[in-house]
Design a protein that fits this description.
- This is Histidine--tRNA ligase.
- One of its GO terms (molecular function) is histidine-tRNA ligase activity.
- InterPro entries: aa-tRNA-synth_II, aa-tRNA-synth_II/BPL/LPL, Anticodon-bd, Anticodon-bd_dom_sf, His-tRNA-ligase, HisRS-like_core, HisRS/HisZ, HisRS_anticodon.
- Its EC number is 6.1.1.21.
- The protein is α+β, with helices and mostly antiparallel strands.
- The protein folds into 2 domains: 265 residues, BirA Bifunctional Protein, domain 2, CATH 3.30.930; 92 residues, Rossmann fold.
- It is built from 16 helices and 16 strands.
- The strands form 3 sheets. An 8-stranded mixed β-sheet has the order 1-5-6-11-10-9-7-8, sandwiched between helices. A 5-stranded mixed β-sheet has the order 13-12-14-15-16, sandwiched between helices.
- Helix 1 packs antiparallel against helix 6 and helix 6 packs parallel to helix 10.
- It is elongated.
- It binds histidyl-adenosine monophosphate.
- Histidyl-adenosine monophosphate (HAM) binds next to strand 6, strand 10, strand 11 and helix 12.
- Histidyl-adenosine monophosphate binds next to strand 6, strand 10, strand 11 and helix 12.
Length: 437
């Protein structure tokens, strides 16, 4: 039997309804902030991610799924190297949404010189070759937001306010959410800060793990995220970004906090929060749900250099993404129903095959009136049609027998109260709609 790949999930039934609900909540909330939906391809040129996310990040170095057509794969196996491939032949599944949206913004000139900011949101599958575990999948789903062209710290604060409101509307109690924020500096102050963290790691080389020594050379700030206890102890005394901000970054960060305070958003400043993607500048943030043990349920930040890295004009940007599967796990751990109600239906049953044509006409009329309608397509007995109606969560059952057909009526049965009565066929759809309220 064919099996799904480890770290992937089938979304169906209540789980699918939960995913659709999250998108509906996002559409309504983000709409009030002026965001429009965008869908970018799930595959992009590798360079889009290398330029944006960063060649030295784990996401790009270790986790990105590469895509080759069968023919290309054959050529590669023959030649033994991908050196001869053109940029457009080097493709990957998107590990996140930001790089692709920014690539689309550059390609389609979403933010022309002097133009208004582009405000975009998306919902879709992302792919990362991570070791699968609870809340860590190889194919997972994100709702994400990208706000391009806004440099004002109010945009940072409003992004965070939107994010927290999104959780609230999904049923997260505010007191269970922990929002951590930090400022990572910008092109002016970060290079010196990176160098000081690199030097700090090298000065403590004999106390730190091999991975951190490698990080010192390629991405020193990631050492703050090392899972090794000893490294964590050492990094607790490392220089912090907040003490090394240039004036512009310090003023920006203070303003973001002022707006969050004014909006009543509770946050914790975490000077070790560095995030796993290289494009961030200034504000970064992450949210966890206490007690859920699934890791971050969302995160984001400012990325003022990304448009340029993707080949566009200098354009500031900020955004965030939330993970659908982790939010479901967290909500379930809180006892919040994520699946919502089964939509139910109206079931049209018949006493024998002779009424099949009448069933066809009745379902046509009911569906025409917008009623979710089911019927039997397998020649079942009346008893087993009723059973099936129950299984499908039917609230009403329309029964058609020879008597009904002869009298031009249908029997309408309420599946909860078992009350039933006859209605003229011509009024069936209207009466059903009325009964369903
Ligand atoms: P991220 O922190 O890498 O940020 O991912 C955002 C969220 O996606 C995480 O907080 C988590 O809930 C979920 N997630 C990430 N990886 C996995 C996984 N392997 N399995 C299940 N869920 C996962 C970004 O992706 C940025 N693009 C966010 C952003 C948008 N920054 C600015 N704009």
């Amino acid at each position: 039997m064919a099996q799904r790949i480890q770290g992937t999930e089938d979304l169906f039934g209540g789980y699918m309804r939960a995913w659709q609900h999250m998108q509906d909540v996002a559409r309504e909330l983000l709409g009030t902030y002026g965001f429009d939906m965008i869908e970018t391809p799930a595959i992009e040129q590798v360079d889009t991610f290398v330029h944006g996310i960063g060649a030295s990040t784990d996401v790009v170095r270790k986790e990105m799924f590469r895509v080759f057509s069968g023919a290309l794969m054959e050529r590669l196996l023959e030649s033994g190297s991908e050196g001869g491939l053109k940029a457009k032949q080097r493709m990957a599944m998107r590990p996140e949404g930001t790089a692709g949206v920014v690539r689309a913004a550059v390609e389609n000139n979403f933010v022309p010189q002097g133009g208004a900011p582009a405000k975009l949101w998306y919902a879709g599958a992302m792919f990362r070759g991570e070791r699968p575990q609870k809340g860590r999948l190889r194919q997972f789903h994100q709702v994400g937001v990208e706000w391009l062209g806004a440099s004002d710290p109010a945009a940072d604060a409003e992004s965070i306010i939107m994010l927290m409101e999104f959780y609230k509307r999904l049923g997260f109690p505010a007191e269970r959410l922990q929002l951590r924020i930090n400022s990572m500096g910008d092109a002016e102050c970060r290079p010196a800060y990176r160098a000081s963290v690199r030097q700090f790691i090298l000065d403590h080389a004999d106390e730190m793990c091999e991975d951190c020594l490698e990080r010192a050379e390629i991405n020193p700030l990631r050492a703050f995220d090392c899972k090794n206890d000893r490294c964590r102890e050492v990094m607790a005394t490392a220089p912090l970004a907040k003490d090394n901000l240039c004036d512009g970054c310090a003023i920006h960060y203070a303003k973001v906090k002022q707006y969050l305070d004014e909006a009543g958003v509770t946050y914790v400043e975490d000077p070790t929060l560095v995030r796993g993607l290289d494009y961030y500048t200034r504000t970064v943030f992450e949210v966890e749900c206490e007690g859920s043990r699934v890791g971050a349920i969302g995160g984001g930040g400012r990325y003022d250099g990304l448009m340029e890295l993707e080949g566009g004009k200098p354009t500031p940007g900020i955004g965030f993404a939330v993970g659908f599967e982790r939010m479901c796990l967290a909500l379930r751990s809180l006892g919040v129903d994520v699946e919502g109600e089964d939509p139910g239906c109206v079931y049209v049953a018949c006493t024998s095959a002779a009424e099949r044509d009448a069933v066809f006409s009745a379902t046509l009329a009911l569906r025409g009136a917008g009623v979710r309608t089911e019927a039997d397509y397998q020649g079942r007995s009346l008893k087993s049609q009723f059973k099936q109606a129950d299984k499908l969560g039917a609230r009403l059952c329309v029964v058609l027998g020879s008597d009904e057909i002869a009298a031009g009526v249908a029997t309408l049965r309420d599946m909860r109260t078992h009350e039933q009565g006859r209605v003229p066929m011509g009024e069936l759809a209207a009466r059903v709609v009325e009964k369903l309220g």
